[in-house]
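pinging the channel bc i need a second pair of eyes. not urgent but kinda urgent?? the chain im working w is below, pasted from the shared doc
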Amino acid sequence: MTSASANSPPEITFETTHGGLPILKLDFDARTPAEIDLERCVLRLSSSNGKEVILVGTAHVSKDSAETTERIIREERPEIIFIELDKNRLEKLLLNRSLGEREVLKKTIEKIRDIPSALKFVMSNLKDVPGFVYQLGGLIVGSPAGNEFTKAIEVAGDIGALVVLGDRSAEVTASRVMQRVRYGSKEKRREERRRRENTKKEKTLRNPEERVREVAEKYGCEDPAKVLKCLKRILSAGMNVALPPGEANDEEEEVEEEEMDLNDRNGGETSSSSSSRTTKISAKDLEVVRQCARKIIESTRKEGFKGEGAFSSSVFLDASNSETEKDVRRTILDERDVILAHSLHRAAKQAGPGVHKIVGVVGSGHVPGIKRIFTRLNDTSKQSESDVLISMLAKEEERHAHDEYLNAFPQDVDAPDPARDMAQFAILFGGFAYLNYKKPAVARRVSAMFFGAISVVAVGAANVLVKVGQLAEKLDDASHELRMHEKIPSLLGDEANSRVLRTARIRNGVRKYGDTAREDEF
C-alpha cells in the first residue's frame, strides 16, 4: 500500500480508518481548466497556422514561477520553448549557474569591499549593477533571479525541445532609456519643467515605513508591523547602521543588558563590543521578511498577468507620472511587448509541420501586451477588401515600429548635435581659460569646488555600494543558515545547471523583418 501511494497521482490518496481499514480517497479539482490556468498565470493562444501557444507569466525572483514553468513544460511537452532573454543575458545566467550563485556573489562582493574598489567597479562594470541588484532580491525571497529560464532550458534538454530567445539585447534597452532620459524632445522637456513647477508645492513624499506597511497589509502579510521591524533589523545589521533604542531584537537586548551589568561590575568601563548595532542578520528575521516578500511577488505576478500593473502603481512608488517615467515605462515594457510578440509570431509562423505546441516563458507584466499584439498579427477573421487593406497597412506600420525598437538610438528623440556640443564645450573651456588668465585665484577656487562636488558624489555613491555589498554578504549567510535549518537543498548552483550547457538547443529569434540571414543554433 505504501509503494502504491508513493506512485499514485496527487488526486488519489490512501488513508486508513481507526479500525485499520484502508480507504482510497479521490480528490479531483473542481475548478475548470480556464480557472486553473488563471491561477497559474497561464494564457493559451492560437497562431494563424494552427500552432498552440501557451504563455506562462512569471516573476523573475519567484520559486513558484520556476516550479510552474517546469510543471507546464513537462505537462505540455512542446516542441519549441520561447523565453524572454537575449543571448548575452542567457550566457551570463547559465555561467552564473554553472559556477554557483554563491561563488559569483562572493566575487562581486570582493570587488566592492572598499570605496576605491567600488569606484573602479562602477566605472568598469556599470552594466553588472542591475544583475547584482537582482541577486540581492533573490537572496531575500530565497530564489535565484531568472531561475524559471534555467528550468525551462533544463527541461528543454530533457524533452528535446528547441529554445528560442525572443527579447532584444539588454544593452539596446539600456541605451534607449539613457537616450530618452538624456535628450528627449524639446516639447517634452518644456512640458516636464512646467509640470514640475505646478506640482512642486503639492507633492509630498510618504514615509518609506508607511509605504512598506501599506504594501504588507495590501498583500496579506500576517503581521505588517513585525515585517517592518524585521526588515529594519536586517538593513541595520547588513549596513552596520545603529537602530533606534527599543528596536533591537530580544536576543540583542539581552546581550546588551549582560554587557551593561558586566561594565557596572568593572567600575563603569564600557566594553568595545557593546553597541546597538547588530553584526549578523538573524535567520528568523529573514524568514519573516521572506514569507511576506513571496506573497507580494506572487500577488503582483497575478496582477501583472491580468494587466493591472501593480509594480508601476503609486503603492510601490510616489510616481508623479512624469514624461521621463512614461518614457522609461514605454522603453522597458511597451516596446519589448512588441518585440516579444513579433518574435513569438515569427517562431510560430516559421515552425514546421512537426511543431504543435509552443510554450512561452515571459514576465507576467508582458502577457497582456503580447496577447493583444499576437492576436492582431494572427487575425484570420473574414473582412472586406478595405478592412484587409487597412489591416495590411497597420501590420506594415507595426513591422516598421518593431524594427525601429531594435535600434540603440530612438527615432523619436532629438538627435545629439556634435557641432553644438563642441561649441558649448569651447565656450566653457574658453571662459575658464580667460578667467584663469585674468583671475587665477578665482579659477583655482572654481575648479576646486567643481572637482570637489564630483568627488563627494562619487565617494557617496561608492560608499552606498560598499554598504550594499556588506548587506548582500550577510544576507547570503543568513539565507544559507535558513536553508540548512530547514534542510532545503540549495537552488544556487546544482549539478543539473551544469548539464544545461551541454544539452540545450538554443536559437536567437529576434531580427528585423528585412534581415534574411539564418540564425544558427548554439
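so Residues 153 and 192 are 44 Å apart (CA to CA). and The chain has two domains: 31-187+318-381+390-418+462-508, 208-312. — does that match what u expected or am i reading it wrong
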